[in-house]
Amino acid sequence: MPTVIQKFGGTSLVNREAVVRCARRIATRHEHGDRVVVVVSAMGETTDRLVEQGRMMNPDGNRREFDLLMAAGEQVSAALMALALESLGVGATALTGAQAGFMTDEVHGRARIKDIRTSRLASELDADRVPVVMGFQGVTNEGELTTFGRGGSDTTAVALAAALNVAAEGGYCEINTDVAGIHTADPRLIAEARRLDQISYEEMLELALHGARVMDPRALVFGEKYSVPILVRHSTRPGAGTLITSMEEDMERPSVVGCALKEDIGRIALSVPAGESGAQAAIFEATARAGIVVDDIIQTEHDGRVHVAFTVEHADLAVVRTAISESLDDLGGGHTDPEVEIGLAKVSAVGTGMKTHTGIASRMFGALADRSIPIRNITTSEIKISCLVPQEHGVRALEAVHQCFDLGMPATENAREG
Ligand code: ASP
Ligand code: MG
Question: What is the distance in angstroms between the CA of the first residue and the CA of the last residue of the chain?
């Protein structure tokens, strides 16, 4: 009997009717004979509202109390889901992260899972009950509640699938959301976007890091590490969905499988005298201390000065600027004040086939040039090319990339072999 993890995100649980609709899906699965473990996020925008309430009370409040506050959202949705399942005649038990065995480190707000003690889950399953686990939370050895950071319920689901080793008996981790699967581009932006039957962890991770909103990148890292098959589907109209899995390299694969757009990117630039050491270390130690993820780093040297620029999300600009100004001042004079530019977007094309195909970059740059879209910066990895463009051209740039790699073609002409 396979065990299936069914995760339902906040957009699938907006109100009572939505919870009942998802409960019916779980009940059908359970009647079919599968062992089911449910993971839920908070309903709708509950977490945003809770964070907002906490900030209004005390903007500099303790991360510990913010964790308790945010975790309350999942407590409500899990309890309601278990009640809904019981009303449909399915025995269900709502469990906190701690009760489900999620042991974490002590870092409030972005805790890491150290261990999952599955004995309670196993006994619920053996009693033919459906455990409903509260997403994105765990407990430290000292009994303190921790959360994994925003969007962390995907990680709860994938980590459970790994801990219960569901793949061994044909099980998998199902991520139920408000789109029918992973598409060649966000279908809300590109009408021709096509659902993919399969995608590799590697490709999906690049897409998620570069703006695809369907899955949390941390969950994909987990999934790849433990080879958890992840099936992304629509929560109430579950079609074939998209299977995220490890895929063998294959010359027949299209070079590009999907593209993504990330908006609201800011750029910080400054210069220091050439030959002075320590500036780069000071800048990026400061951003790391502030807990900010830096995107692209660009360095050039001319006229006796080293010019360093990097990109971060708009929301992080103010904090980053203060942090690096302080640490550069400690280094002595000679540097310029950090200049901030806002309103940039990044369009990325992703595909493992890039490793073996040539001419991908020129095709992408050509498509942007044809539409007179200026490229502000280019970054690449083995399986990704990204261009930074002015945000006002963001969606047109995505359209250009989607078109130039024929991503909207019928599945038979463009789909890779499974
Ligand atoms: N409810 C949490 C959030 O909004 C966790 C999640 O949904 O994954 O970030
Ligand atoms: Mg999510």
Answer: 25
Nearest bound ligand to CA 155? 1
Pair 240, 196: CB distance under 8 Å: no
Number of the ligand closest to the Cα of 152: 1
**Residue partners of 275: CB distance under 8 A and separation at least 6:** none
Please check whether residue 36 is in contact with residue 26, taking contact to mean a CB–CB distance below 8 angstroms: yes
Number of structural domains, the chain? 3
Per the structure, the complete domain to which residue 143 belongs is given by 3-177
- Do residues 169 and 282 share a domain? no
Atom of ligand 1 nearest to the CA of 150: 9
Judge whether 168 lies within some domain: yes
339-350 and 258-273: which strand pairing?
antiparallel
| Ligand 1 mean position, distance from CA 70 (Å) | 9
CA of 342 to the centre of ligand 1 (A): 27
Ligand 1 pocket, residues with Cβ under 6 angstroms: 9-10, 41-42, 47, 73, 135-136, 150-153
Residue 391 C-alpha to ligand 2 middle, in angstroms?
Answer: 24
pLDDT, tens digit (0-9, with 9 covering 90-100), for 285-325: 999 988 888 888 999 999 999 999 999 999 899 889 888 88
Q: How many helices (H) and strands (E) does the chain have?
A: 12, 18
Which residue among 38, 39, 49, 136 has the greatest number of ligand 1 atoms within 8 angstroms of its CB, and so is best to mutate?
136
- Whether residue 116 sits in one domain with residue 26: yes
Q: How many C-beta neighbours within 10 Å does residue 57 have?
A: 10
Q: What pLDDT digit, counting tens, does each position of 106-136 carry?
A: 999 999 999 999 999 999 999 999 999 999 9
- Show Cβ contacts of residue 144 under 8 Å, excluding neighbours closer than 6 positions: 64, 106, 108
CA-closest residue to ligand 1 atom 6: 151
Q: What are the φ and ψ backbone dihedral angles of 410, each rounded to 5 degrees?
A: -55, 145
Residues 62 and 140 in one domain: yes
Structural domain ending residue among the three candidates 326, 342, 358: 342
**What distance in angstroms lies between residue 42's CA and the mean position of ligand 1's atoms?**
6
Asked whether 416 and 198 are in contact (CB, 8 A), the reply is yes
